Every structure is written in C-alpha cells, then in structure tokens.
Automatic annotation (TrEMBL), chains A, B:
Key words of the record: DNA-binding, Transcription, Transcription regulation
Region ranges (Disordered): 1-20
Source species of the chain: Amycolatopsis ultiminotia
Keyword Cytoplasm among UniProt keywords: no
SUPFAM superfamilies assigned to the protein according to its UniProt record, in alphabetical order: GAF domain-like, Winged helix' DNA-binding domain
Domain named IclR-ED: residues: 87-266
Identification of the protein by name: IclR family transcriptional regulator
C-alpha cells in the first residue's frame, strides 16, 4: 500500500529549471521548500526560521507565505508565526495511502489498546524513515516521542526494525552505511549487530526493543502484510522498560497485525 | 480553536495577479486549483477531470501534475490516474487545528463508541460547511456517508445543526438564504422551521436528527466549547432510525462533549 509508491526523497525534489533569480527552482519548488520546513519539525515558525530552513530569499518567502496563507495551506498565529493550516489537513486526510490503511487498522489498534492499556502505533516506511500513521494512547505509564505524521529513524525502535527487516537492499544498505545514531542506552549502533537483529526479526515474525528510541520505553512490534505478502506496515505496543518480560505481549501484537493483514486482502 | 481562524472561502482564493496566458492567476493559485479538485470529491482523477474541475488549460495541468507528483502532493496510480499523496497526508497531520482537537477528543470519542457501539463523529465548522475531523465505528447497524476530511452541509445533520446554532449571524443568514437542500426525508428545508430548531438546540444544549442526511440514520449531537465558552466543535452518535427514543443517548453524548470541553481549558 505504502511501500509500493514511496515518496520521492527530498534531495530529488528541486530539479526543475526555474527563473534567473534563484536558478534551478520553479515557483512551485520554492513553495514546496517552504512547506518542507514544517515536515519534521511541526512547530509554529517565524518568517526568519522558514527563510533559513528553505534557503530562499526573504522577499520570496514573504510572497509565498502570503499565497500559502491565503489558500489555507498555512495559518498565521496571533503571535505572527506560521503553522500548517486546516486546508492542508483536509486535503491530506484524502490521501488513500495514509487514510485507507489507518481506517482498516483502527479497530484492531483499538482492540490492542484495550488489552495492553498503554501506547499503540501504526507505522509505515517512508523511504529511509519510519512514518507514524496512527498513535493511540490509553492511560500510559510511559512517555514516548512519537506523534502522528512524525518520521523517525528505523534502526532505533521495534516497528522501525520490523520495517527495515523487510525493506529492499537498496534501502537497508544506505541506512547501515549512514551510521546508526544513538538515541538512548539500548540503541543498536553496530551495523553487524543490527544485521543479526534484522535476520532474527524475519525469522521470529516480531521485534522487541528496550530503551532504543526513548530511555524507559520498550516495545513489541509485528509486521502487517499486504495482498502479495509484502510487509506494508508495522504495529507496535510500547510499555515501560521496567516490564520484566515483553514476550507475553507478543501474541496480542501479532494478532492485531494479522487482523490488519487479513483486512488488506482484496 | 478552529472557528477562530476559518479557512478562506474558495471564492477568495484566486485573486493575485498572474501571467497573461491565464490572467489573474499565479502559478501557485493554479496549483491550488488542481489540489482543490480533490477537496470534496476524494477519488482518483484523470488529467481530463482535473482540467475540467480546475478550469485550467490542459498543458498547464500537465505541467502542474508533474511537479505536484514529483514532490509527493499527488501520486499517480497504476491506472494513470491521480490521487492525494502521502506527503500531503504527512504535512496535513501537522495542522494543530485538526490534529490538536482530534487528539484531545479521541479518548472521549472512544469511550462514547464503547457505550453506544455505533458511529461517533467529531465535527467542526469550516465556513458554511460541517467538516468531519474524526469518525469512529464499532459494529454499526447503520451506514452513513460521512468520512474524515469530508465537508457536508450544516443544516442536514445533528452536529451540523449544533455548529450552525452557535455560528455568527454572518454565517447563518447566507446558509438560510442559499436554500436548504433536501438530502433525505427528514431534512429541514424550511428556513423558519430551521431557525426554531436552532433556537431549541441552543436552549436544550443538544440536537437530535432523524433521516436528515441519510435515510435510516438518526443522530444525537452536543457542542464542544473552547476556553472562552465559544462552541468550537460538535460530537455526535449516529444510530439506526428504527431506534424509537433517542433521548437515552443524550447524557453520554453530552458527557463526551463536556469532557473534551474540559480538556480544552488551558
């Protein structure tokens, strides 16, 4: 569903010829650069911050912000900052990739939330990152950094490792070669050890993580498979790391993932 | 939250001066016109359908589609049609308006789903329409046309009437003057009767509907109030119209709406 038509990498985006003032960038590509500045750091931003993040001239950003705000892609806050607007939310909610999978998965995620009573995630691969499609929380004992729409590194979480374990070589090798950033005390930073972990995840059909993304948070994750058996998403439960044994959670997480996989069959 | 910074009406959007080929339209405004064609009819579209909906020249649409697809705003399907892409979903999920309210409301919506076991909606006003922010379903006996991201007329549903009952005069009068389209056998099409219904909703603190939007579907809706007491959203439960008495559902719907209102307090 998702892995099949991946979003183009950011580096390929701004290649269409533009005008002389900012060579190599069309008006649209400049507007995309403004919007990109909101992608992975979703806070209110000033004109100056957007200018720095986009690499555009201040006057260009000024003009683009006026048009993007006029249409509703962005909103101006009371403090004169900019944030993503309701029009983009509405348009984005029509994306069959994000929405369709999420809608099919929701009942299973809710069941999983009910038996685990913590945090439940639905995650897909977006190029070399794990994109969080849904997050449900009950009364969690654990605080995690995930948020719907956020993209996080794949090597440092249960669902990320599930997605990486089933990603094509062309995705896995660059991730391993780029260096595995430490996010918490349990992050696997050694490529050889990560390779072994991914092989074991493929063999076992699930992934465990302990203090990999966030200190104090552990997770159990399992793959969701699309019609051709290809892994299209991962489902996970996050629990406090003081949970002595994660294995009792495995059957419920796998059941939820298998339920969604079945719902994806045509 | 939402009503305070409404999205500009569609008619105000394309006013910035552009080039000679399509006077009065900038490149960006033309890209917005392409994206607008996906707003309220979220299906895969052909190049020809987008051209007709946007009123642009076919060659212009061709160029815009290439750029929008390159960035990931749109995706090309296997059948050569276009649909909203994952990049827009991700960006839209950062909108604090849609997302913040939905995240705060979700636990209360889930509780309401559990006690009602049907369909639960979270709806906000977007100008003169009801915009569906969230829809949760259990094992519903009733089929409704709502979908997350969809905008429907306000006069023909429980949550729509709640939002209209608390909308400013500048919104209500044009809605009444524009004519109240019949959507099902119970739709209120007489402006005088709708005025009375809205006054009663303000007095009672909830709205009932029977066969107003969809034949066979009835609903109970209550207002969610923001920090200043202003109505910012409506929560509703939809049940089959064969349900003889809707009143027993009122307390649960009002409790959910009050819970969200409380969560919105600073």
């Amino acid at each position: 569903m998702m892995g099949g038509s991946p979003v183009p990498p950011r580096s390929r985006r701004h290649t269409i010829a533009g005008n002389a003032a900012e060579p190599g960038r069309t008006v649209l590509s400049r507007a995309f650069a403004v919007l990109d500045s909101f992608l992975d750091a979703p806070v209110d931003k000033t004109h100056g911050e957007i200018t720095r993040a986009s690499g555009l001239a201040p006057a260009t950003v000024h003009r683009l912000l006026a048009e993007l705000t006029g249409w509703g892609a962005l909103e101006r806050t009371a403090r004169g900052r900019y944030r993503v607007g309701l029009r983009l939310w509405q348009l984005g909610s029509q994306a069959p990739g994000g929405r369709g999978l999420r809608d099919l998965a929701l009942p299973f995620l809710q069941d999983l939330l009910q038996v685990s009573n913590e945090v439940v995630h639905l995650v897909v691969r977006d190029q070399d990152r794990a994109l969080y499609l849904e997050k449900l929380e009950a009364h969690p004992d654990v605080v995690v950094t995930s948020r719907v729409g956020l993209r996080l590194p794949m090597h440092a979480s249960g669902p990320g490792k599930v997605l990486l374990a089933h990603a094509p070589r062309g995705v896995v090798e660059p991730v391993l070669a780029a260096g595995l950033e430490r996010r918490a005390s349990g992050t696997i930073t050694d490529p050889a050890r990560l390779r072994e972990a991914l092989a074991e995840i493929r063999r076992q059909g699930f992934a465990l993580s302990r203090d990999e993304m966030t200190e104090g948070a552990s997770s159990v994750a399992a793959p969701v498979r699309g019609p051709a058996g290809r892994v299209v998403a991962a489902i996970s439960v996050v629990v406090p790391s003081r949970t002595p044994n994660l294995l009792p959670l495995v059957p419920a997480v796998r059941m939820a993932a298998m339920g969604v996989s079945r719902a994806l069959q045509p």
